[in-house]
Design brief:
Length: 386
């Protein structure tokens, strides 16, 4: 029997990798739904190749353009309320890979329609994990993280208990600025900041890698997903990105998870559950294993890492504030309205403002309150800068 699945954000990098995996074994899968924001031509092509009957295009203009094409055998919708029409019963698997805070709503809404959800959206996990966790339990839906570091932790914990963990280290490549002197950071151009040495990623996440904010986010995600304390989590710089996570257990054993710098590996494993299928990968890289080159993060060079010290183990909205403000600051950098170093400097300035310190003691609310906070944060950031 074919495994039924849906892909939220099918025209993004994660969605494209998943579709490529599916195309190599089409007889095993039936894709029920694809979604995108504006890229209606690409999603239409994906739907035709995979025989998908349902498409959601959230951008109104793109939706109308696609509707005018009068496509046969494919239903085109404009919003996520259509989930209730599309899904007659639970599908086997959903990939949630819509980027940004607007990936939270569809992630929450689709949980009840799937047996398993793989999430590759940092904003959903950081800002809405309390909502996701509640619905996972309510609808008996299993969850698997797709980010390479979190999938590696997930993989290393098979057969182990969270209570047996002494320390977890997430690795960071150091990004495109790892070997650049700190005195040159202020004049870093966009082309340099997005030129990641190991991974092919979108502009926003590439900038986050350059500032190392992506590691701050990954620490927050790990804390939430695995119900850990921040004191248990740490970061090691590892330029080759061959090792993704190191877990040290209370009994002295150390689990090191390595794989090529290829997102196909966690995506493939999230889909197949490591059962009955083989992914063709490179041979064990002994040269990389002989030159792991781990080191602590230089927090003078990457001050974003200092933000972790401000985070509390109790639930609060501070993590949400950090994600939303950083998102807008990176956007301003990509629009050439601020310098590279202004991203973290202004983020630190904002979270130290009296207005936002109170969020340290406020618990996350519903989706509407998070979206409302997003608008407020973006307006505040722009007032600070412009």
């Amino acid at each position: 029997m074919k495994k039924k699945l849906a892909i939220l954000g099918s025209t993004g990098s994660i969605g494209k990798i998943l579709i490529d995996i599916i195309k190599k074994n089409k007889k095993s899968f039936k894709v029920v739904l694809l979604t995108a924001n504006k890229n209606y031509e690409e999603i239409l092509n994906q739907a035709k190749v995979l025989g998908v009957k349902n498409i959601i295009i959230t951008d109104k203009v793109s939706y109308l353009k696609l509707k005018r094409k009068k496509i046969r055998n494919i239903k085109v919708f404009n919003n996520y309320d259509s989930f209730n029409v599309i899904f007659k019963k639970k599908v086997d698997y959903v990939m949630s890979s819509i980027s940004g805070i607007y990936g939270l709503e569809p992630t929450i809404k689709i949980i009840k329609h799937t047996k398993k959800i793989a999430i590759a959206n940092k904003e959903s996990i950081i800002c809405g994990w309390h909502l996701i966790k509640k619905d996972l339990k309510k609808y008996k839906t299993s969850f698997i993280p797709v980010d390479s570091e979190h999938f590696s932790i997930f993989y290393s914990l098979k057969g182990n208990k969270i209570s047996n963990i002494e320390k977890i280290f997430l690795t960071a490549s150091g990004g495109p600025l790892n070997n650049i002197p700190i005195k040159e950071f202020k004049n870093v151009k966009i082309s340099k900041a997005i030129n990641h040495p190991n991974w092919k990623m979108g502009k926003k996440i590439s900038v986050d890698s350059a500032t190392m904010m992506n590691k701050v986010f990954e620490i927050i995600e790990a804390k939430k997903i695995f119900n850990l304390k921040y004191e248990i989590l740490d970061i090691l710089v590892h330029p080759s990105s061959y090792i993704h996570a190191i877990t040290k257990f209370n009994d002295g054993m150390i689990n090191i998870i390595a794989h090529d710098t290829n997102m196909r590996i966690p995506i493939f494993n999230s889909l197949y559950d490591n059962k009955d299928n083989k992914l063709s990968t490179n041979k064990l890289d002994i040269k990389k294993l002989n030159f792991l080159n781990f080191k602590k993060v230089d927090t003078n060079k990457f001050p974003s890492i200092k933000i972790i010290k401000k985070l509390k183990n109790t639930q609060s909205l501070l993590e949400t504030i950090i994600v939303l403000a950083n998102d807008e600051l990176v956007n301003l950098f990509l629009l050439k309205k601020i310098n590279f170093t202004d991203i973290v400097n202004n983020l630190q300035k904002l979270i130290n403002m009296r207005e936002f310190k109170i969020y340290n003691h406020r618990k996350p609310g519903n989706i509407n309150s998070i979206i409302s906070l997003n608008n407020h944060i973006r307006n505040t950031v722009n007032k600070m800068i412009l």
